[in-house]
Amino acid sequence: MAAGSRRVKSVEDSIRDTDEPEHRLKKNLSGLDLAVFGVGVIIGTGIFVLTGEVAKTTAGPAVAVSFVIAGVVCALAAVCYAEFASTVPVAGSAYTFSYATLGEAVAWIIGWDLVLELALGAATVSVGWSGYLNQLLGDLGIPLPTSIAGETATVNIPAIFVALLMTAVLVLGIKLSSRVTGVIVAIKVAIVLLVIVLGLFYLTADNYTPFVPPAEPAAEGEGGWHAPLIQLLGFTQGSFGWGGVIAGASIVFFAFIGFDIVATAAEETKDPRRDLPRGIIGSLVICTLLYVAVSLVVVGMQPYSELSTEAPLAEAFSSVGLSFVSSLISVGALAGLTSVVMILMLGQSRVLFAMSRDHLLPPGMAAVHPRYGTPYKITIGTGIFVALLAGFLPLGTLAELVNIGTLFAFVLVSIGVIVLRRTRPDLHRSFRVPLVPALPIVSALACFYLMLNLPADTWVRFAVWMALGIGIYFLYGRKHSRLAGAEGEAAARRLVADREARGG
User: How many CB atoms lie within 10 A of CB 326?
Assistant: First the structure.
């Protein structure tokens, strides 16, 4: 068994796998492409919805501070991802990082966890895309029947359509995918900037006072298993005040989810050691600035207590007589969600590709198209799976699983940075996390705290999903792994030889 009972796959073996002819992906992406991918997946419904919801119910005008806090927590995880991605430039993101540090069993768990985050996330966003499309068509007087579009559809045709269309784009090549994303991102960023600039002319200073409303006791909400786990543990959070601002950060945090997907494209990046940190951190900085600016404009245009929790930007502009901006915002949201669907499926296919290449899933799935240089079998399978989920299942109650899956990945990556620093201090790191181990520990604790703010029943579903994954690993993955049998013994010998060569 390789590397003792943990079956750690060395960094060198991970990088060596990327040169196998049948598994070689085309390196077409630059740092700018990666930053565009990051902005493309981060800016989705969060900027259009969460601003009003958190301002009205939790933080007041200080929702901008909530976005800053959430951005800082995300940045802690982002720098951990940046060090890993530049040191181990291999497809698979947190799965690959965990394999090189915490061992095969943990790597499988995180890979299985990423299926929860990415596939379910893509399906959920596809359903949201269908809803925005129907809203826009309704504004034009040609709405689709609710039986085939929107969250209550029996068969959600637009959701199936967008999932399959983005699958086709992904199969045709990573460069085409980046160009499509570039066009979409340009549209939605232009609309976001238009919202900011137009809104500046309609600000009212009184709407910012008090900036941090007086604290209020927690409202009587849903109890039992749907209450946040932290509440069941005896900690009660109220609304408004600085406690409300921090609680608001745990909600708006999920508007930032997606930057980690940049790391899944490591193998298709021209200069991953330089460009991956730039893409990950650059996209996060851009989105944080846009989020803060939009939130300040919205609460300045309309008193926070009057904001809509469903369409705050559109309602804020309607309140000052600019209702035509509502349609523009719908176009921006539609464009935003299109790129989110595509990039979530990109991330999902690359994680499954890495797992298949390691034989934890059937190896035939990892075939790369001879012309397009993409893992076409896994991409098509992912697209069909997402389309079926989006077309036939009500996914509203499962959306929280996306959040807990993402945060769990962040926790393991943060811990993995510390482990890899201790086990492989000799590795060249073109980007290094400062203040190790303090910063990764703070990152892991901050992400875990946000996990505690999720409902207890979400934790139960997460535990069931993880238990199912562990069962599959012991029934299939562990037996068929490349680190089992003769190949695993060879990998173990290489690992020992590497350590001896380093004087370890």
Answer: 18
The residue whose two tokens read 């609309």 is: 191
CB proximity list for 187: less than 8 A, separation 6 or greater: 331, 332, 335
Instruction: Tell me the per-residue pLDDT of 399-424, one tens digit each, with 9 for 90 and over.
Output: 667 778 888 888 988 999 999 899 88
Q: Is the peptide bond before 143 cis (omega within 30 degrees of 0)?
A: no
Q: How many CA atoms lie within 13 A of 488 on its CB side?
A: 21
From the list 110, 14, 98, 89, the residue with the least C-alpha distance to 462 is 110
Mean pLDDT estimate for the chain: 83
DSSP 363-429: GGGG---TTT-S-HHHHHHHHHHHHHHHHH---GGGHHHHHHHHHHHHHHHHHHHHHHHHH-TTS--
pTM of the model: 0.81
What kind and span of H or E run contains 470?
A: helix 456-472
8-state DSSP, 69: H
Contacts of 105 (CB under 8 A, 6+ apart): 6, 7, 473, 478
- Residue 72: is its pLDDT beyond 70? yes
CA distance 76 to 73: 5
pLDDT tens digit sequence for 448-467: 988 887 778 889 889 999 99
Residue type, 72: V
What is the distance between the alpha carbons of residues 241 and 211, in angstroms, rounded to a whole number?
9
Q: At a CB cut-off of 8 Å and minimum separation 6, what does 238 contact? A: 215, 216, 217, 218, 244
> Element (H or E) spanning 349, and its range?
helix 324-357
Per-residue pLDDT tens digits for 291-341: 999 999 999 999 999 987 766 887 788 788 887 787 788 787 787 788 888
Tokens of 97: 């990082």
Residues 345, 294, 396, 142: is their CA dihedral positive or negative? negative
d(CA 248, CA 67): 8
Distance, CA of 264 to CA of 110 (rounded, Å): 13
State the average pLDDT over residues 4-23: 72
